[in-house]
Amino acid sequence: MDYENENDTSWVRGMLFPGENLLWSGKPGKGHLFRKEDVFLIPFSVFWCGFAVFWEVNVIKHDVPFSFKLFGIPFVIVGIYITVGRFVFRWLQNKKSRYALTGQRIIVKTGKTVRTLNLTDLPRMTVTQRADGAGDIRFGETAVARRVGTSYERSPYSDSLLELHNIPDVNKVEYRIRTAVEQALRARQQRED
Predict the structure, then answer these.
(1) What are phi and psi of 59, to 5 degrees?
(2) Among residues 40, 183, 14, 4, which one has the least CA distance to residue 104?
(3) Does residue 157 contact residue 37 with C-beta atoms inside 8 Å?
(4) C-alpha 135, offset from chain centre
(5) Closest by CA position to 93, among listed 161, 36, 157, 163
(6) Nearest-5° angle of CA 186, CA 126, CA 120?
(7) pLDDT tens, 78-125?
(8) Where are the alpha helices (DSSP H) in 27-154?
(9) pTM of the full predicted structure?
């Protein structure tokens, strides 16, 4: 989403270096709290929470030591978080997130935390687009390895250095990033020559 109003970009204006131009600013669109890793996590979280609640209810119903009743409470709390709470957390994070692209870097602000990546040193960019045109841009996937026999293979779970979630018209933003990267690399090459 582009911002034309000065107030919408005021959060990033104070972070710009002298001579640094703001090329794009946006924030996550509404909805789309589900991600591809949820395909694996939802069944697991429902099973975890269901078993934890089943355990706790049965322990409370029967005459067992108090320590057994306390034992299940952390598992119920974790079950509630991984089943429902993480979606609430994502929603709150999306409300506080802002993204910016300048001629020199990508800036992601979530609450009070600000993370940046220089355009000339960008790691691999992965773009995921949904049918409505919105999508995610991830930089620098670090695969989580799992041991298989005597070797390691990539797990379906991974972490990114930086992510721009639920961007409306993600292809337009991807094009802007790629164009800005080309210009930044060209400028660096000219300085080095």
Answers:
(1) -70, -40
(2) 183
(3) yes
(4) 11
(5) 163
(6) 25
(7) 998 888 888 888 888 888 899 999 999 999 998 888 998 889 888 888
(8) 38-61, 66-80, 86-96
(9) 0.71
